[in-house]
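Budget justification, computational time. The allocation requested in the original proposal was used primarily to generate structure tokens for proteins on the priority list. As evidence of use, we reproduce two of the resulting records. The first is shown immediately below.
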Amino acid sequence: MVAALSREAAAPPSLWLDALVASGADDLRPRPALGRNAAFDVCIVGGGLTGLWTAYYLAKADPSLKIAVLEKHIAGYGASGRNGGWCSSLFPTSAEALERSHGREAAVAMRQAMIDTVDEVARASAAEGIDCDFAQGGTVSFARNAPQLAAATADVAAAAAYGVDKLELWGAEQVGERFGARGSGSERPLGAVFDPSCARIQPAKLVRGLARVVESLGVSLFEHTEVTNWFARRVRFRSELPDGSSVDGAVSATNIVIAVEGYGAALPRVGRHVLPLYSLMIATEPLSDDVWREIGIEHGQTFTDYRHLVIYGQRTADNRLAFGGRGARYHWGSAIREEYDRDPRVFGHLQRTLVDLFPAAADAAITHRWGGPLGVSRDWHATASFNPKTGVGIAGGYVGDGLSTTNLAGRTLSALIRDEQGPLTELPWVNHRSPRWEPEPLRFVGSNLGLLATGLADVEQGLTKRPSLAAKLMAPLTGH
């Protein structure tokens, strides 16, 4: 399904991008590459949501700035155009962990900032006329066995202790009345947690719309322009030109922002600071109203459960089930290749899991299959960092929680670059430095062992109905 990008038009690597092409809203034709040496005030590496939100807030705050965004493929080609479409308040590091490292006040501030970010994405997209199917219906997290129910109950209690979330714990009867998350051979949910701080989004509409907005604000967006390295306020790049030739050049810039998430593993200055972890998705054909009445998921709602091997889904604006999860292995040397976006074994697992969760979807045809890498730091802690001495900023390590966190990163980097101190620049993720991942073969063995243990933990819990020993033993590798 995923083909190499051409100068004429980009092959859609996801349901979201494919829908733009199919509707005629966007043919994904690449913008011109940067074909010469140039100078800018700010050079942003990466045309995904982190880079575009940073450009947006910088341009809004100071229209006099000369800003360039350099993108290897097209805007939204990476995780920003392939994700599950959750604009949520989730942050990779738990409030409890933040409290241990930074204190209670900082942990509460981070939680509130993430909740507020959902509202900010809604405000900004509406203000700029970006129709991204934003609908805030919250997240339903099913608890399908006793250990999952215990984890759900603990989550609600912890949220209440911090006083900023509005989580609700629903019992088995309430879940049974609302949802068709049951059936022959599946575990009948014992309860669920409802978190109102999440919206469904069509992510490609958001990222492609934001690209057009920043251009209207005077930002220069260059596609098919691959950054190869950067030094002392200078960015090296290689561009693909329409005639098939390539040009090597450099951009001089007072400030540089590295916004490439998992793809940073291929850059020499990032390398082992990030691990590209693959997450894959499937989407069904549009489902009938009768099927949706049985399933029970409403427009704007996203869903998951409390298993260890992460799953996530949404009801799309055109009534499909878009469903994804982990399970694809890590590749030696942090390799990122297009063929890794497709794994028949994982796609089959996702389809079986979806039907097990919602038996009413058993006969639905799967129309789209796709995937891609997301960025994981060694301590599973995202960051928005800026060094005023070098003029270099970086953000990422979202571990799959980036659709909203990228907006917070853009606002934070904009404030740091402009030396504007305030609540955003005091958040505990600002200037956080994660340790590097281990060299190979330790990275390969550890990452895939953690993936295997995560899957085994769910099997173990299903059989024993007790918290998983495997999950406890592997917690340091899986960010818990």
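The second record produced under the same allocation is shown here.
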Amino acid sequence: MGVLKDLQPQLVFKYFEEICGIPHGSGHMEPIADYCVAFAKAHNLEYFTDKLHNVSIVKAATKGYEDSPAIIIQGHLDMVCEKTADSNIDFLKDGLKLGIDGDEIYAEGTTLGGDNGIAVAMGLAILASDNLEHPRIEAVFTVDEETGLYGAEAIDVSMLKAKKFINLDSEEEGVITVSCAGGVTAECILPVNRKRAEGTQLKVVVTGLLGGHSGVEIDKERANSNMLMGRLLYNLNKKIQLNIVNVAGGQKDNAIPKETVLNLIVSDEDVAKVEDTVKEYQHIVSNEYKTSDPSIVVKAENLGKGSHEVLDKESAEKAVMMLLNIPNGIQSMSADIKGLVETSLNMGALKVLEDGIHAIFAVRSSVETAKASICDRLISMMEFLGGKVEFTGSYPGWEYKKDSELRETVIRVFEKQYNKKPIIEAIHAGLECGMFSEKIEDLDCVSIGPDMKGVHTVDERLSISSVERTWNLLLEVLKESK
């Protein structure tokens, strides 16, 4: 007997438990895709699949809805696989061990995969039900969303007829997401020449920053340690011969870096100048960021005398020019949605390699042309300095649609069901809605979902009552979509 057999809505939790019994971590999609195909065959439904294992299943409109616009119900098949040190689960072979704690479902010692298994379960429950009222349903289940939206990027949508799209990948009940940012990784590469220098090696560190996710926390105006180091280098370059051994900060393009380390070779008489400049700079940044990033530390450490390869004078000056002037942080705010960051970029990683200085950015915007403009600025600067920019992992944004019939339907149904207004939200991060909006002209999208917490961790929980309310909301939206 299933652990979730007595929960409501019964059909939704039946399919959710079946999904949890099938290994479906990112990169291993065939078993869960085969399950969806077998479901379609068992219910005599038209279906489409591809070599990546994306699956689309179509159900005809019910009586009275034959002329109503079709609707896409969409979620992703893959889950993030994390487990505790003592868990013996093999994510390639084993299903999850589900449990119930009050109003919450969890998995013993592992992630639950409510993100996004509950979306797939709701889609299957709609497809399997024979007592619902709805227009033509196109249930689209994509693969490998968690590792880069790869399924949505590659899927062929030519067989789909719908212009309305309900994504079920949100994690907070009562929030209707209506826009998301697109993005790209930009790696700026500045070639350098080197020379040999002797003297005292100093290690200068900018540390103690809060950091954060460049999509979620860029609006908090926290400091970026790489950019702070650029300012410090400019000040040092005015006072001493700048012999840079190395400069490095951050690991990932989408994380605001917390620490950057600079290694310099200086003459004996310049040691005090560096130390004094560092102390002065500590006071400056502590004052500037006393509210948003109050624990910044700038310090210098004497590592003793030695001989090292350093950047030559021209290379060092170009590095200072780049790090001081290259754009970073919020570039524009949305004029349509109050408080939404529309366009930003984050220098998440900085390092010196054999071929030069590499600065790696996460560029984001909900307006595709604005994203392209930021990329053009990076290209222009780097080409002027004799460098280049390499772009990878581009994905489109989902631009806010001022006139959205679907959004208004969801809001109207929500207010009727909950007796309050929903939160209308746009996020400065990526959703699959962006990929589909690029593929399907004039697509009308919303994203909703039930309450989840601890997503992508072993503490993941899914609210039972929230699933039921979200299910009822979804069904009523379909019913009103004539």
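A brief technical remark on that second record: The radius of gyration is 26 Å.
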